[in-house]
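SEQUENCE-TO-STRUCTURE ENTRY
===========================

Subject: a protein chain together with a token-level encoding of how that chain folds.

Sequence line: the amino acid chain in single-letter code, read from start to end.

Question of interest: how does this chain fold, as expressed in backbone structure tokens?
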Amino acid sequence: MIRRMVIFLILLSEISPGQGLAALPEGAAPNDSRLQPPLTLHGYHPFHPVTSKEQWPARREEIVRRIAVSAGLWPHPTKTPLNPVIHRKIDQGDYTIEAVIFESMPGHFVTGSLYRPAGDSLKIGLKDGKRPGVLCPHGHWQDARYAQKSDDEARQEIASGAERFLNAAKSIHQARCVQLARMGCVVFFYDMLGNGDSRQFLEHRHGPGPETNGDAMGDWGFVSKNASARLQTSFGLQTWNGIRSLDFLLTNAEVDPDRILVTGASGGATQTMMVSALDDRVTAAFPCVMVSTAMQGGCTCENAFYLRIGQGNVDLAATIAPRPMGLTAADDWTVELEEKGHPDLSNLYRMLGAKGNYEAHFDTHFKHNYNHVSRTHMYQFVNRHFDLGLTTPVLERDFDLLGKEELSVFDQKHPAPSGNQVGTPHEKALNRWWAEDSDQQISALLNPKTARQFEQTKEVIGSAVQVMIGRNLPRKGEVDDELVKKESRDGWVELSGLIRNTTHGEEIPASFLYPAGKWQGHLVIWLSPDGKRGVFREGAEPINEVKALLAEGIAVMSLDLFAQGDFLNSESLARSKGANPELTYARNQNTKIPADSWQRSPVYYYGYNHSTFARRVHDVLTAVAFAHHSEDYHVQKISLVAPRGTGHWAAAARAIIGGDLIQKAWLDPGGFKFQKLESHWHPDFLPGAVKYGDLSAFLVLNAPFDIALPDPNDSTLARTWIKVAGGTLHTEEDLVDYLVK
């Protein structure tokens, strides 16, 4: 408050050309949280609790929806035939191992090993003739399905107390699968992208190339602008592989659909959380050494657009509740789990009346692992929750270790993919199939023919837009304002000040032009590519349309949205030339990272921070909330004007607000299309916007309310849904006439 009073006292009354009164001293930027360094995967990511069990279903749905949208899986891609191939059975006495190949998407193969009980193990775990099923994603152990440590490394593990047997120490993953099969479970252990036999992607991690502004593969590729615009990532594909792996597991008639476990460590724990959150067929989960409030996952397969905005790994793991879940911690980023995260999860399960379904183990004297100690915790968990009836503690026995030659799924009869099925051609083909499948689903939603179809449009596209923008209209009490300067003009008054979203620490410079003695409560919020100065022609002289509105007794408010006007008043922000200054920071924070490194993938920025586009929409929402809730100005009617260059922001804001709060909206998108943007670093880039119908998505969601679209090209689509949803569409109408009548 003192800072603002100082500003008020030192402000000069002179008027800058084309701007009107200044809201801030020259060179000062708003006191806005968004001008701080961006959030990263290494930040602090606490749990976002609910206060009652009645609140949990809605909060859980919010988290799960964000995961699904982030993964490009909202709605799900078409589940095409798996075309599974199971061959080369290896009989190990009390268990068998078979090679598995199936297609999660057409032409994309998931590879893995299927472990089944045999011999004496067949007697364990049966319930109504069926046995538990287990999915095992493996995390960032290279070629984990058949890779082995050396004898010396294995002996060191035994000496440390981490392992009991040499073969288990050499392959912790085979040890897990063998023991679970011996416990009567059917286990599918599948390869991560670029690992084991999953070699259609030549690398596991994906990063942009330097030659095409981050679009290394031209039109397509998993770190191309087109893929980003459609939320296609290796994270999403790997998550889909997990869901389709569950489909495959449940094709086995002996698997009990009521006893399905997913368990993995590190990156495998990330996939455990994602599959368990998105697929309610999972009945229990055991993610190891990943859940924490610290580092959230360093690989591109663990990060996606929007994934950790307003949530972190503790929230993601919580979606499993009240289903059984077990966690482990180690001497890594999970070392503080017992104090940070675990109490929140324990409280949640207790609140939900499922205290016995949650457990956590803090073996922090071991480094990052899925060692025998951690696996033994998991075996007891499975024995108890799946009613196996085994004597506790359940302990591993030694087993015969197999190598690549025995476990590879490809042989002469089943050759590995080659040619266009591998590398860049495969990646691009997969992108295109995914896009075409999505377009087919979304196109029908963009052209609803009935009121019921329009409700589905709002459910699918509207839910996605909620995630992409990530903000609703602020409630009363979340917004306040401060008058900085006031000057009387010829028949009107100019007020300059700041509008604040106190919940999010955001501050928006604004000009308010008030028709003295004539105002009837009608306020027009006027957007401009030039910020609040866009309503002025020269000095304090408004542009003609604004003068005409003032003459009619209509007030006009103009704004410096994020990265406009006063946001660029410092030297560092001016260098960004209107682009998101945080993007500049994100792209250059470590000059030692090569330009084509996977660590420069846009998922590392947009996965934790809102885009410039979304932030500008946030500011429009804040301005509308200010007008609606203000007790000082008594606004009775709110209209929105968005000239060319701003129509896309306004269309998105009104799509979020809904209802009839904005009685009239005059929007001129001017032919804007997200698809036309050249880079995923463009200040108007919005990840996923193309997937959900581009600008059309926002326009459709503006129904059924009064709208003017002066460009006939924009109004063509609107005519289709306006007939279904109702409302009034105006085209080629004078702006002032539209607002006055």
Remarks:
- Residues 2-7+14-35+469-580+624-740 form a domain with the Rossmann fold fold (CATH 3.40.50.1820).
- The mean pLDDT is 90.
